[in-house]
Amino acid sequence: MQGASKTLPEAGILLGMRTLSSVKQHTALAKHAEALCLQEGMAMTPLRREVYELLLAHDRPVGAYDLLEELKAKRPKAAPVTVYRALDFLLELGVVHKVHALNAFAACRGMETAHRGLVLICRTCRTSVELEDHKVDNTIKRSAAAHGFETSDEPIEVLGMCSLCRA
Ligand SMILES: [Zn+2]
Ligand SMILES: [Zn+2]
């Protein structure tokens, strides 16, 4: 089909495709996070790195208490505040997104700074997929601005059902 390839970019770019070597991808994302820290003059402490790596290891958003349980395997004394502080740092740095619909957190799979993700969330299996879609973002921004409304840079969350659950 000739027209098919032309319609692809319209659909937004899928970030964090599982077809990529995930080890390679994780290493690249971790390096990107370190570089961002240097650039911002912030410190990626071992604890912050551990929390980030736990999130990278999941292909779906994780709740803070689940993260805490995982962190306790290495740091038995970890408390909720330990996790929340590390998450706040990672959110601020822009390498983690909060997925409000699931009250959970996901490592950002994109490397563009100051981007706004579009997250597709499956209600059934809680999987989320992050897309980079500037068209949607710009449309929302424009419509909101017409009402004097300034949008935040938090990801746009779209709820529904993923292809696996629909099958
Ligand atoms: Zn992102
Ligand atoms: Zn699903």
Could you explain the architecture of this structure?
The chain is α+β, with helices and mostly antiparallel strands and about 170 residues long. The chain has a single domain, classed as Winged helix-like DNA-binding domain superfamily/Winged helix DNA-binding domain (Arc Repressor Mutant, subunit A, Orthogonal Bundle), CATH 1.10.10. It contains seven helices and six strands; from the N terminus they run αβααααββββαβα. Strands 1-5-4-6 form a four-stranded mixed sheet. β4 and β5 form a beta hairpin. The two termini are about 25 Å apart. The structure holds zinc ion (2 copies).
Which descriptors apply to this entry?
167 residues; four-stranded mixed β-sheet; Arc Repressor Mutant, subunit A; 7 helices; alpha+beta; binds zinc ion; single chain; two-stranded antiparallel sheet
- By CATH, the architecture is named Orthogonal Bundle
| Number of domain units | 1
Uncertain residue segments: 1-10
The overall pLDDT average reads 84
The main β sheet shows up as: 4 strands, mixed
* Cα Rg: 17 Å
Q: What is the CATH superfamily classification?
A: Winged helix-like DNA-binding domain superfamily/Winged helix DNA-binding domain
